[in-house]
Amino acid sequence: RNTISTSSTHIVGLKADGTVVAVGDNDHGQCDISDWSDIVAIGTGYDHTVGLKADGSIVAVGDNESGQCNVS
């Protein structure tokens, strides 16, 4: 199942094979998702992107000024 998440700065798509694609503004690295795999859900914020992996762990990239990418 493919999923799309949008923010005002970028668009992220979850492909059926668990990989992710992103386009748009990447000033804060919010589109740096090329090495993501085994993703089952995605979300976007203004300048960040979050992914939920099949094993339950979370990955995040982008602006972390308010700690929004501190998901480890």
- The pLDDT mean sits at 95
Task: Work out the number of β strands.
Answer: 6
Order of strands, main sheet, comes to 1-2-3
Supply Rg: 11 Å
The helix-and-strand class reads: mainly beta
**Total count of helical runs of at least 4 residues:** 0
Order of helices and strands: EEEEEE
Distance between the termini: 26 Å
The low-pLDDT segments are none
Which terms summarize this structure?
72 residues, mainly beta, three-stranded antiparallel beta sheet, 0% helix, 43% strand, globular
Question: TL;DR?
Answer:
This protein is mainly β and 72 residues long. Helix content is 0%, strand content 43%. It has no helices and 6 strands.
How does this structure look, described?
With 72 residues, this protein is mostly beta strands. 29% of the residues are buried. It has strands spanning 3-6, 10-14, 20-24, 39-44, 48-53, 58-62. A hairpin with a 3-residue loop joins β4 and β5 (48-53). A three-stranded antiparallel β-sheet has the order 1-2-3, with no helix packed on it. A three-stranded antiparallel β-sheet has the order 4-5-6, with no helix packed on it.
